[in-house]
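Technical annex, item 7. During the second reporting period the consortium partners agreed on a shared format for inverse folding records so that results from different sites could be compared directly. Each record opens with the tokenized structure and is followed by the designed sequence. A conforming record, contributed by the partner at site C, is shown below for reference.
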């Protein structure tokens, strides 16, 4: 039994790792296609039909390029930085419930690597560690632009993590749990006691704050100040080449994937959807959970498209505007959301 459990988890971990890399790889293709569509261009169309082999061509190019390490760089930390960024990006998916338990050959398989009762704290811990890859790489490069980028990334991460954490506190008042699996299962169905069961309808302001902070935490435009070309010549990965640069670029897209997954799980029901019980009754314990996982990924892809849409629509903030929004706008708004949520819950419980 123990061996079966280990094999099951190994297969799931390997599949998640492969899916994360595949989505990150083709997010680069999707980003260029979305940008081309918004700017009335074609985008990549040479490598394969409709350019679908372009990510493979880019990957081969990254592998084949020369490895360059600056003479005055801290060589050990210069190598550790991109590896740490990639590691922290990949391990965030471990606590995500990707679907209900599925029956395969008479055996119940959980579509989740591990269900810990502090799953949300785990996610925040991983997010907090991710910035160290950027900071180490920026400092170890021994380049003033890279160092400024690392400082920006650290201050931006700290500022927006506070507002993100406060938005989650309001959600915890509603759900009373830190387990992602429990939070998703509470959003089953579509109506319950006169409420929509998805947390978005219970915490719309909390979701808005969380989403804005997710843009800042992943260094996506209009919050991409740590790597803006006009001011910092590329920022923290300015001195990197070959697959070290590829790791940083991949880590950003995997972080975007993980952020989209967390938003879909916390606020939009995860694998839950209207009519789910009807599908489960007619499709059985194997195909119905897999269809729920398919719906989950459709929600994730919708958020990824939104990340890309915003990048090519909204201009970049100035740095003082970015910090002002975090400290003067989102943090007071998140505190107000906690107070309002507490008052509403107290009123509802008294009646």
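Designed sequence (site C submission):
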């Amino acid at each position: 039994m123990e061996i079966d459990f280990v094999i099951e988890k190994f297969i799931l971990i390997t599949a998640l790792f492969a899916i994360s890399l595949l989505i990150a790889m083709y997010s680069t293709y999707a980003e260029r296609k979305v940008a081309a569509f918004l700017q009335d261009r074609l985008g990549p169309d040479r490598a394969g039909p409709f350019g679908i082999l372009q990510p493979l061509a880019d990957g081969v190019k990254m592998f084949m390029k020369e490895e360059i390490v600056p003479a005055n760089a801290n060589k050990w930390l210069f190598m550790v930085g991109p590896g740490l960024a990639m590691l922290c990006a990949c391990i965030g998916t471990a606590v995500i419930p990707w679907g209900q338990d599925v029956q395969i050959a008479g055996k119940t398989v959980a579509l989740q690597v591990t269900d810990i009762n502090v799953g949300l704290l785990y996610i925040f811990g991983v997010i907090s560690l991710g910035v160290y890859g950027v900071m180490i790489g920026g400092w170890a490069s021994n380049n003033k632009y890279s160092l400024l980028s690392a400082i920006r990334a650290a201050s931006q991460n700290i500022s927006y993590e506070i507002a993100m954490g406060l938005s989650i506190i309001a959600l915890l008042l509603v759900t009373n749990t830190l387990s992602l699996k429990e939070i998703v299962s509470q959003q089953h169905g579509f109506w319950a006691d006169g409420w929509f069961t998805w947390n978005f309808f219970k915490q719309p302001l909390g979701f808005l704050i969380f989403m804005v902070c997710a843009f800042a935490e992943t260094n996506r435009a209009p919050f991409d100040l740590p790597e803006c070309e006009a001011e910092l010549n590329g920022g923290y990965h300015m001195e990197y080449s070959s697959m070290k640069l590829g790791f940083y670029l991949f880590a950003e897209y995997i972080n975007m994937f993980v952020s989209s997954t967390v938003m879909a799980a916390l606020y939009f029901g995860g694998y839950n959807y209207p009519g789910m019980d009807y599908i489960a009754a007619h499709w059985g314990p194997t195909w119905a959970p897999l269809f729920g996982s398919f719906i989950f990924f459709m929600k994730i892809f919708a958020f990824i498209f939104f990340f890309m849409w915003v990048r090519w629509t909204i201009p970049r903030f100035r740095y003082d505007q970015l910090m002002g929004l975090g400290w003067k706008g989102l943090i007071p708004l998140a505190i107000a959301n906690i107070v309002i949520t507490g008052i509403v819950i107290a009123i509802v419980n008294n009646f």
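Strands lie at 102-104, 107-109, 191-192, 195-196. Residues 61-98+113-350 form one domain. All partners now use this format for quarterly exchanges.
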